[in-house]
C-alpha cells in the first residue's frame, strides 16, 4: 500500500524530529533546474535551511540559495520502504 501525504503527516505529527523532503526549482519551464534533499529537522523552516546547506555545501549546487523551495514531510516511499507482501513483514 502506498502511503499518502495525509498518512505521512499523521505519522510525523507527534515526533519531535521529523524527516522532510525539500525540493528546489529555478529557471523557466523548458530549462528548469531541480534538486531534492531528504533531511531531518524539527520544523519546516529548519528543514529548508538544512536542505540548502546540503545542496549548496555538500553537493555544490549553490543555485539553490535563490531557488524556490517546497518542503513536505517524508512518506514511507521517500524513506525507501517497500511493501513485501499482503501480510507485511519479512517471510
Tell me about this structure.
This protein is α+β, with helices and mostly antiparallel strands and 91 residues long. It has a domain at 5-9 and 16-73. The protein has 2 helices and 3 strands; from the N terminus they run αββαβ. The chain is globular and about 45 Å long.
Summary of the model, kept short:
With 91 residues, this protein is of the alpha+beta class. Helix content is 25%, strand content 26%.
Strand content: 25-35%
Shape call: globular
Q: Counting H and I runs of at least 4 residues, what is the number of helices?
A: 2
Largest sheet: 3 strands, antiparallel
Structural class: alpha+beta
Average residue pLDDT: 92
Straight-line N-to-C gap: 17 Å
- The H-and-E topology, N to C, reads as HEEHE
Rg, Å, rounded: 15 Å
Number of strands: 3
Poorly predicted runs of 5 or more residues: none
- Give the strand order of the largest sheet, numbering strands 1, 2, ... along the chain: 2-1-3
Q: What is the share of helical residues?
A: 25-40%
Amino acid at each position: 500500500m502506498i502511503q499518502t501525504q495525509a498518512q505521512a503527516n499523521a505519522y510525523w505529527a507527534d515526533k519531535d524530529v521529523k524527516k522532510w523532503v525539500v525540493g528546489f526549482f529555478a529557471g523557466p519551464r523548458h530549462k528548469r533546474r531541480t534538486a531534492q534533499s531528504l533531511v531531518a529537522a524539527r520544523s519546516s523552516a529548519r528543514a529548508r535551511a538544512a536542505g540548502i546547506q546540503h545542496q549548496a555545501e555538500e553537493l555544490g549546487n549553490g543555485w539553490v540559495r535563490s531557488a524556490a523551495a517546497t518542503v513536505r514531510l517524508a512518506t514511507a516511499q521517500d524513506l525507501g520502504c517497500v511493501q513485501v507482501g499482503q501480510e507485511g513483514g519479512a517471510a
